[in-house]
Amino acid sequence: MEKRGTKVYISADMEGVTGLVGADDVQMGGRDYDRGRVMMTEDVNAAVRGALAGGAGEVVVNDTHSTMRNLLVESLHPAASLVRGKPKPMGMLQDLDGSFDAVVCVGYHARAGALGVLSHSFMGHEIEDMWLGGVGDEPGDARAMGEIGFAYATATAIGVPVVALTGCDVACKEIEEWDTRVRAVPVKYARDRFAARLRPAEEARAAIEAAVADGVREAATPAVRPRLVPDTGEQVLAVRWQSASVAQQLEGIPGVSRLDDRTVRAQGSLPVLFRLFGVFMGVAYSLTGQPPYC
After folding, report:
1. How many Å apart are CA 120 and CA 123, to the nearest integer?
2. Contact by Cβ (8 Å): 217, 138
3. Is residue 197 part of a domain?
4. CATH code at 81?
5. What InterPro entries does the database record attribute to this sequence (predicted)?
6. Are 157 and 275 in contact (CB under 8 A)?
7. Which DSSP state fits 123?
8. Which residue of 45, 87, 150, 204 pairs with 187 in a disulfide if CB–CB is 3.0 to 4.6 A?
9. Per-residue pLDDT at 290
10. DSSP structural state of residue 108
11. Who contacts 218 (Cβ-Cβ below 8 Å, separation ≥6)?
12. Which of 184, 182, 186, 166 is nearest to 219 (CA)?
């Protein structure tokens, strides 16, 4: 039977999950990683419950952290299907397309350079900064971004609104700078990059569930939130790497140029740039092999 109701996509990262503050919480082999997996699964389950309460007839979850094999499959809410493992051509947005009505980002974190819990941009320290701008923008007009901004911009270009995001308070502020309509749920309050005041887990998950339910309900009501029109226009992505070697190798990709020794540039539609950036990271990993939180 064909499923009815709103179609919801959940992109699940780990650093912004309830209770997690250090590398050992989120890295495979870390002493608290197994506990971190439980916490991540529970946050995602809260989001799934919220999506269902908001009228979702189908929920797809994408495990997007590190190996992308973190969520406990046997403990995941039975109403959700799971996209698991890597490589994925579209990484954190794998399987997202215009048939979805809403995107929810669970466990997201602030971008590199921000004093948020476990802040970074895609790679632990290899990426120093990222920008997104329009073709023909003047220098300085491009917008600094990390995973939150890139995921938000790409999802909306595909035509699907981001309706809710969970993470530390700094991550919540970051998404609000992109779109104040996104329901941001702080599950912890950063005190430093590896320290936070934690919101009680039961309270945090209740807040996740309520915010997602409201966001999904709104996305299903065109009079309140009109459907987005997909944007196929070209934009410019720039990435500054810690290593000049990475930038030099990336320059060998057709359409990629160097702005300086460590910064590369590419132009295209946002879904294309998002996929291309995955290739960038593959090259960088092959050259650096560095742990993510040193």
Report:
1. 7
2. no
3. yes
4. 3.40.50.10780
5. DppA_N (IPR027476), Peptidase_M55 (IPR007035), Peptidase_M55_sf (IPR036177)
6. no
7. B
8. 204
9. 58
10. E
11. 163, 224, 225
12. 182
66 near 92, Cβ under 8 Å? no
Pairing relationship of beta strands 143-144 and 127-134 according to DSSP bridges: antiparallel
Pairwise CA distance, residues 227 & 20, whole Å = 35
In this prediction the pTM is 0.95
Is 235 in contact with 270 (CB distance < 8 Å)? Answer: yes
pLDDT tens-digit map of 33-70: 999 999 999 999 999 999 999 999 999 999 999 999 99
Choosing from 65, 77, 120, 125, the catalytic residue is 120
Tokens 């039975």 identify what position?
78
How many CB atoms within 10 Å of residue 1? 3
DSSP structural state of residue 121: B
Closest CA to 133 of 149, 120, 121, 147: 149
- Which of these, 176, 177, 227, 178, lies nearest to 186 by C-alpha position? 176
The three-class DSSP label of residue 204 is helix
Q: Is residue 35 part of a domain?
A: yes
Is 252 contained in some domain?
no
Is the CA virtual torsion 244, 250, 254, 257 positive or negative?
Answer: negative
In a domain, 233, yes or no: no
* pLDDT tens string 3-41: 468 999 999 999 999 999 999 999 999 999 999 999 999
Number of CB atoms found within 10 A of residue 261's CB: 12
Of 91, 130, 117, 92, residue with least CA distance to 18 = 117
Query: Tokens 């890597």 correspond to what residue?
Result: 86
Domains in the chain, number:
1
Q: For this structure, is 77 an active site residue?
A: no
In DSSP terms, which residues pair with 238 in a beta bridge?
131, 265
What single-letter DSSP state applies at residue 276? Answer: H
Domain range spanning residue 38?
A: 6-121+147-219
Residue 165 · residue 186 · CB < 8 Å: no
Cα–Cα separations (whole angstroms), residue 178 to 215, 229, 281: 16, 17, 24
